[in-house]
């Protein structure tokens, strides 16, 4: 087993990047009793390092590790979505435009997500029932659970239904955040 520092050094990345790999399912972290940080299987770390050798996509530092998925490239110091720098996307497009583009591959200028009335009707009382000390994250969690339970498409896993559910949920969360800000 490797410590966080050892695994990061072996991959030539920062510990933060190592944990990004964990969150994306590229590595598995383990907790050990009496050990403060995470531990990583050397075999799994070496396998990731081998997969990344010889593949230096745009954005990767020479000799550094870059991780590419179907739509994402995580370079040594930049993130790219569908080949476009994330900072450029943030500067030029609204959140909803980028989210929809990531899901569909089509950039729809000016798109705005709308929450179905049933989702708003479910989310509002759930958020109102929280104490005044509830954090913004608490409010968003409560709204997400309530809105999700009211979504008639929640069990439909076709791409169109998943996109519609995501659009509606984002709009319902935004409505609760603005209402209680």
Please explain how this structure is put together.
With 181 residues, this protein is an alpha+beta fold. Helices cover 51% and strands 10% of the residues. It has helices at residues 4-11, 15-23, 42-52, 86-92, 95-104, 117-128, 136-150, 159-179, and strands at 2-3, 29-31, 38-40, 67-68, 72-74, 79-81, 84-85. It has a four-stranded antiparallel sheet. Strand 4 (67-68) and strand 5 (72-74) form a beta hairpin. Helix 6 (117-128) crosses helix 7 (136-150), helix 6 (117-128) packs across helix 8 (159-179) and helix 7 packs across helix 8. The longest helix is centred in the last third of the chain and has 21 residues, at 159-179.
Largest β-sheet summary: 4 strands, antiparallel
Q: Rounded to an integer, what's the Rg over CA atoms?
A: 20 Å
Give the termini distance in whole angstroms: 46 Å
Q: Please indicate the percent range of residues in DSSP E strands (runs of 2 or more).
A: 5-15%
Principal-axes shape call: globular
| DSSP summary: helix tally | 8
Instruction: Identify the strand order in the major beta sheet.
Output: 4-5-6-7
The tally of beta strands, per DSSP, is 7
* Sheet/helix structural class: alpha+beta
Order of helices and strands: EHHEEHEEEEHHHHH
Unreliable segments of 5+ consecutive residues? 54-59
Mean pLDDT: 83
Query: What fraction, in percent, of the residue positions are helical?
Result: 40-55%
């Amino acid at each position: 087993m490797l410590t966080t520092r050892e695994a990061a050094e072996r991959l030539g990345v920062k510990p933060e990047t190592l944990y990004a790999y964990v969150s994306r399912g590229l590595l598995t972290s383990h907790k050990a009793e009496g050990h403060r940080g995470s531990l990583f299987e050397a075999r799994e770390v070496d396998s990731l390092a081998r997969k990344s050798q010889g593949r230096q996509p745009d954005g990767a530092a020479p000799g550094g590790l870059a991780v590419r998925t179907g739509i994402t490239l995580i370079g040594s110091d930049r993130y790219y979505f569908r080949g476009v720098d994330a900072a450029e996307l943030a500067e030029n497009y609204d959140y909803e435009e980028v989210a929809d583009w990531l899901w569909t591959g089509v950039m729809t200028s000016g798109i705005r997500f709308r929450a179905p009335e049933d989702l708003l009707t479910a989310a509002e009382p759930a958020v109102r029932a929280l104490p005044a000390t509830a954090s913004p994250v608490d409010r968003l969690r409560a709204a997400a659970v309530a809105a999700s339970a009211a979504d008639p498409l929640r069990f439909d896993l076709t791409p169109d239904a998943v996109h519609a559910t995501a659009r509606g949920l984002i709009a319902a969360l935004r409505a609760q955040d603005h209402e209680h800000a």
